[in-house]
Amino acid sequence: MFNSIHKFTLLVGLTAGLLSCGDDHNDTGTEFAPNMYNSVGYEPMTQLQGDTNKINPLGMNMRLPVSGTVPRKKYTGADSLKKAFLAQELLAKTVPNDSLSYSAALLKNPLAATPENIEAGKQQYERFCQHCHGEGGKGDGLVAKQYKGVPVYSSDALKDVNDGHIYHVITHGKGRMWPHGSQISSENRWKIVLYVHELQKQ
């Protein structure tokens, strides 16, 4: 049987439970450990309700851009080639590292396949790719002898892969191939893509 202390405890618990319910479905109630959800430090992309930054103007966490800053999407000071590079760069950054099919569907090489660009791509290929993929893209480079299974560009599996596919693999890697996005500029990666297409035809 419940004694009076148990009854009182049960009554207080039920009362507290009923009082904690409300009509506002957007109200999350009292948080037990708010610092686990809301950073103690100011975060530039977060502005909590009632949170006023005493340092920055307008009480905002995000700092105002430097005077004269132009957003990327409104960058009009470049020629068409630079704009194409910028568009592909922004698009490439939205593709997750493991979404090769997205890159293959979305990305297009902003460079024309001119002899100069292909030659520049060959130079970059010799610098960064040849040690594994071989001089002719046959997967017979010196490092490939240790790695085993480096693909042949002209094989049935790879002879038709497009710009976005190749660019993604250079940038993020695939299988045992390590990512090279931090080593090779975006422009040079596109030039390598042009040269890889030449090796696919062999």
Walk me through the structure.
By secondary structure, this protein is mostly helical. The protein folds into two domains: 4-20 and 29-59, no CATH class; 79-200, Orthogonal Bundle (Cytochrome Bc1 Complex, Chain D, domain 2). The protein is built from eight helices and no strands. It has helices spanning 4-20, 80-93, 100-106, 115-128, 130-133, 144-147, 163-172, 186-200. The longest helix has 17 residues, at 4-20. The protein is elongated. The model has no long low-confidence stretch (mean pLDDT 84).
In N-to-C order, the SSE pattern is HHHHHHHH
The domain tally reads 2
Tally of alpha and pi helices: 8
Second rung of CATH, namely the architecture of the largest domain: Orthogonal Bundle
CATH third-tier fold name of the largest domain: Cytochrome Bc1 Complex, Chain D, domain 2
* Stretches with pLDDT under 50, minimum 5 residues: none
In the CATH scheme, the class of the largest domain would be Mainly Alpha
Query: Main β-sheet, in a few words?
Result: none
The radius of gyration computed from the alpha-carbon positions, rounded to a whole number of angstroms, is: 29 Å
Envelope shape: elongated
Number of DSSP-assigned strands: 0
Instruction: Determine the N-to-C terminus distance.
Output: 90 Å
Mean of all residue-level pLDDT scores:
84
Helix content: 40-55%
CATH superfamily of the largest domain: Cytochrome c-like domain
Q: What proportion strand? A: under 5%
Structural class: mainly alpha
